Amino acid sequence: MRPTTNLFKVNDSPLLVPLAEPTFNYEDIDASDTGRDEAGYMHRHVVRRKVGKWTLDYGTVTEEEKQYMENIFEGHDTFQFTRPSRLNSSVPKTTECYRSKLQITWKSTKTGKWGNYKINIIEC
């Protein structure tokens, strides 16, 4: 089984080391009345700033690695996600998040290999 990392944790359980470079996205959430007026001027009403989304790509994983990861998320609609802070990557930050998507392909029933294992974690 590949090693785990304390850089990324779910409810204090370390995740496996991603194969590909993790992607960090931060997006403001605007109120429903945000928009442009007749003159084209934008009236922006931000309700939350810099809401995070993290994509962790594991590529090919074994059955054991898949089970390890899936057991961490099992039974949790939301969870505490720890990752490097946006402002200072040497400082861990923890917020409530959810997993929006699981992507996986069963590559081989003989070898038990899975491919394209990717998870998206989004801040609540």
How is this structure best described in words?
The protein has one helix at 63-73; strands at residues 4-10, 13-16, 23-30, 35-36, 42-43, 46-61, 79-84, 92-108, 113-123. With 124 residues, it is mainly beta. It has one domain (4-29, 45-123). The longest helix is centred in the middle third of the chain and has 11 residues, at 63-73. It starts with a strand and ends with a strand. The model has no long low-confidence stretch (mean pLDDT 95).
| Average of pLDDT | 95
Please indicate the percent range of residues in DSSP E strands (runs of 2 or more).
over 45%
The helix content is under 10%
- The outline comes out as elongated
Structural class comes to mainly beta
Order of helices and strands: EEEEEEHEEE
Largest sheet: 7 strands, antiparallel
Evaluate the radius of gyration.
18 Å
Span of the ends, CA to CA: 31 Å
Poorly predicted runs? none
Number of helices: 1
Number of strands: 9
Strand numbers in spatial order across the main sheet: 2-1-7-8-9-6-3
Domain count, please report it: 1
Q: What's the gist of this structure?
A:
This protein is mostly beta strands.
Feature tags:
two-stranded antiparallel sheet, 1 helix, 9% helix
Give the topology.
Layout lengths: L3 E7 L2 E4 L6 E8 L4 E2 L5 E2 L2 E16 L1 H11 L5 E6 L7 E17 L4 E11 L1
Antiparallel strand pairs: 1-2, 1-7, 3-6, 4-5, 6-9, 7-8, 8-9
